[in-house]
Recover the amino acids of this structure.
């Protein structure tokens, strides 16, 4: 939301579409039209032409509005299967729908909002934390240029919510200030246990942040004693 608001201020004559999909669906599944951008902030919209998209629970039942479930698709533009990988193909098409691996909520009007990747959802203590929610709060800080939230091994919490932040050029921000900001906007268990300030985030050629690389590189943050104890 904060990024979209800034873009609208900087580029008032540009209309923004929010598109969602993946390589397996070649690649578009849903779209949020410009007229809905501010009315449905963060949403990826509704299914596009020739695509059926649902948000379901583990038993393939549609979730109620506001409940988290997995996005599944049916479409003639979906892949038929993964090359020479029958096991992965069967797993992806359980129940006759393609399982995206993305978690989302759907509202009363049918608009879908992606909350996290299943593999990126953080399980800290007995609670689940969607990384995108924490990232949205981090982007509210003017001094934050980029942010990625990941779960790292922790001796007490199993996984600890951890923020990796790139400060905006010419500005400074402290780890403690970031944590204090998060405490104002998030439940206690969602507040990062540590903040790591970096110059850049690892990305693939299309610009997607590689959270796996971050989790690997910072895997020993809480066992090596380098985490800021004031952020816990």
């Amino acid at each position: 939301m904060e990024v979209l608001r800034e873009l609208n201020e900087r580029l008032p004559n540009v209309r923004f579409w929010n598109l969602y999909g993946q390589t397996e669906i070649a690649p578009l599944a849903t779209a949020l039209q410009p007229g809905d951008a501010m009315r449905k902030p963060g949403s990826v919209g509704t299914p596009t032409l020739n695509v059926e998209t649902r948000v379901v629970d583990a038993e393939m039942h549609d979730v109620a509005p506001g409940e988290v479930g997995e996005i599944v698709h049916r479409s003639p533009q979906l892949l038929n299967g993964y090359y020479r990988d029958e096991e992965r193909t069967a797993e992806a098409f359980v129940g006759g729908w393609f399982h995206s691996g993305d978690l989302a909520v759907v509202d009363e009007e049918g608009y879908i909002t992606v909350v996290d990747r299943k593999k990126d959802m953080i399980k800290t203590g007995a609670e689940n934390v969607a990384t995108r929610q924490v990232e949205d709060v981090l982007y509210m800080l003017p001094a934050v240029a980029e942010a990625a939230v990941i779960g790292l091994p922790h001796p007490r919490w199993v996984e600890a919510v951890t923020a990796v932040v790139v400060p905006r050029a010419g500005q400074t921000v402290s780890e403690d200030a970031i944590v204090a900001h998060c405490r104002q906007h998030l439940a206690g268990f969602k507040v990062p246990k540590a903040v790591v300030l970096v110059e850049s985030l690892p990305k693939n050629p299309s610009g997607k942040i590689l959270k796996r690389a971050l989790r690997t590189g910072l895997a020993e943050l809480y066992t090596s004693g380098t985490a800021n104890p004031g952020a816990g």
Notes: The mean pLDDT is 93. DSSP finds five helices and twelve strands in the chain. The longest strand covers residues 144-154. Helices lie at 2-10, 86-92, 131-138, 175-185, 211-217.
